[in-house]
Amino acid sequence: MSQYKYRNHDCETLAQLTALVDQSSVTNTAVSYPTWTWRQWKPFLELYFKPVTGIM
């Protein structure tokens, strides 16, 4: 029965998806991971690699 809840509902946010999973069954529980950490890649990679000439 839980697969039908997923098919018939639109989820636009992570909170809506979490609520849908939690309500889909008595035994289902949504698992949330820590928030994503964005990184400035250029300064980070410059610590470990030398720039390659001729490549932008």
TrEMBL record:
Protein name: Uncharacterized protein
